[in-house]
Design a protein that fits this description.
By secondary structure, this protein is of the alpha/beta class. It has 3 domains: about 20-270, 3-Layer(aba) Sandwich (Rossmann fold), CATH 3.40.50; about 275-395, no CATH class; about 400-470, no CATH class. About 45% of the residues lie in helices and about 15% in strands. The protein has 16 helices and 15 strands. It has helices spanning about 40-60, 75-85, 95-115, 130-140, 170-175, 215-230, 240-255, 290-295, 300-305, 320-340, 340-345, 350-360, 365-375, 380-390, 395-430, 435-445; strands spanning about 5-10, 15, 25-30, 65-70, 145-150, 150-155, 190-195, 210-215, 230-240, 260-270, 270-275, 275-280, 315, 445-450, 455-460. The strands form 5 sheets. Strands 4-3-9-10 form a 4-stranded parallel beta sheet, sandwiched between helices. Strands 5-6-7-8 form a 4-stranded antiparallel beta sheet. Helix 10 packs across helix 14 (about 380-390), helix 10 (about 320-340) crosses helix 15 (about 395-430) and helix 13 (about 365-375) packs antiparallel against helix 14 (about 380-390).
Length: about 475
């Protein structure tokens, strides 16, 4: 069996991955708060852990349970729904919240599907596990790890000596170096909310502490417990969640079930930048996945760019990288369309070099180098198989792209003949202005122009637009 090694943030070391139960490898990844579209940074953990999921399914024969949650109870959701109501949207606040969450989950699925991400085995919604959250909170109070004050329930951070171990911080340093909410009902500034009261205008559920709603951190602890048990194999998410979210998850879960491990391996992907700068609305470089898709950047291009950087390093999204990825995929599709047999390709196993690269702490850059090696070695069936395995281009996408490219090539034949005739005439007249004009028009339409002694070849490029060819013949 393939040996997988993963960097465990819990131990700060790369370790051999040994599942608790090889018949059911269990992974939990923190999902989105569903109040708006996913921005490009939100998509990085989706691609990272989807790739890990594919590797685990391959190595363990598909015996993997992958859980990624939807946080559908949150103050941002409430504020978004309230703003819509104030803008004149019809319906109660509760109805508008439900409408917004359904809409946003639909957007999320569509956008992540476009990136080639498989749907997790289970996608729990927080609102379906309120009872489990209340039960866990009651247990923490009974054991002395939490306390209730005026409808609030807070976790007593000082009661858990290992608090801060994941992020490598002491509680006192965290208080000194961070802005923390100081509230009169807190015993300690670092204590965090497990339950908070809701007024009549906010979503709420009955509880032993009055009508209220859960704090954010308890949601993932309760859902992972219900779906994966008190001990499971891998917990993942972005590095921005390491503190306080994951630190708080560990504290409340380990105190609720001290006999268990909670998550054995913790993995965090690093942050995303745009053209070397932090993505932010103030810099004007903030955009969603849907923005890119609507601008004509295919999801497979986004995924290929993401896979080019190791998950543990900051990733820089640039227009140059996107253009390079698009061109590379076009080359792959052209070669596969000319030389591969997709029926045979479907039956092949993923390439050993690609599996070995992913098994080495998800070295996706090395996997892409191996992928390009297949193309250079003219192993086009294997190239197609591994594009599918890595989630970059499925066989269905390959077939669609090949069909479109062949249709485009047929469409371009008369334009190639016209350009060849112009070039022949130009050589006689010593006037290449008509050739240059047509070539410029073809390039503007996204056509790649190749001219040699052997003749003229036109190929559809990444931005090919057939409508812009009108009037060139």
């Amino acid at each position: 069996m393939v040996t997988i090694r993963l960097h465990n943030a819990k131990t700060r070391a790369k370790e051999v991955f040994t599942p608790i139960d090889p018949e059911n490898v269990r992974m939990y990844v923190c999902g989105p708060t569903v109040y708006d579209r996913a921005h490009l940074g939100n998509a990085r953990p989706v691609v990272v852990f989807d790739t890990l999921y594919r590797l685990l399914r391959h190595v363990y024969g598909g015996k993997v349970t992958y859980v990624r949650n939807f946080t559908d109870v949150d103050d941002k959701i409430n504020a978004t729904a309230l703003a819509r109501q104030q803008a004149g949207a019809a319906g109660t606040l509760e109805a508008l919240i439900a409408e917004r969450t359904e809409e946003t989950i639909g957007w999320y699925h569509a956008d992540m599907d476009a990136l080639g991400a498989l749907r997790p085995d289970v996608e729990p919604r927080a609102t379906a596990y309120i009872g489990a959250m209340i039960g866990m909170i009651e247990g923490l109070i009974a054991k002395g790890y939490a306390y209730s004050v005026d409808g609030h329930v807070l976790f007593d951070v000082r009661s858990y000596p290992d608090y801060g171990r994941l992020s490598g911080r002491s509680v006192d340093d965290m208080i000194a170096g961070a802005r923390v909410e100081v509230a009169p009902y807190k015993r300690d500034p670092m204590d965090f909310v497990l339950w908070k009261p809701s007024d009549e205008n906010l979503p709420g559920w009955d509880s032993p502490w009055g009508r209220g709603r859960p704090g954010w951190h308890i949601e993932c602890s309760a859902m992972s417990l219900e779906l994966l048990g008190p001990s499971f194999d891998i917990h993942g998410g972005g590095i921005d969640l390491q503190f306080p979210h994951h630190e708080n998850e560990i504290a409340q879960s380990c105190c609720a079930h001290p006999e268990a491990d909670f998550a054995r391996v913790w993995m965090h992907n690093e942050m995303l930048q745009v053209e070397g700068k932090k993505m932010s609305k103030s810099l004007g470089n903030f955009f969603t996945v849907r923005d890119l898709l609507d601008q004509g950047v295919p999801g497979e291009v986004v995924r290929l760019v993401f896979l080019g950087t190791h998950y543990g390093r900051p990733m820089d999204w640039t227009a140059e990288k996107a253009a390079g990825a698009s061109s590379k995929l076009d080359d792959f599709v052209r070669l596969i369309g000319q030389f591969a047999n997709l029926q045979i390709a479907r039956e092949l196993a993923p390439d050993d070099a690609i599996i070995a690269a992913l098994a080495d702490d998800m070295n996706t850059h090395a996997a892409l180098v191996a992928l390009e090696g297949l193309a250079n070695a003219a192993r086009y069936n294997e190239l197609a198989r591994n594009l599918d395995f890595l989630g970059i281009l499925s066989f269905e996408q390959l077939e669609t792209r090949i069909d479109r490219k062949q249709d485009a090539l047929k469409l371009l034949l008369p334009y190639a003949a016209r350009l060849a005739a112009l070039r022949e005439a130009a050589m006689q007249a010593k006037d290449f202005a008509p050739v240059d004009a047509m070539k410029a028009a073809l390039l503007a339409a996204g056509v790649e122009v190749r001219m040699s002694k052997a003749g003229v070849e036109l190929l559809p490029g990444p931005g090919f637009d057939a409508a812009r060819l009108e009037g060139l013949l």
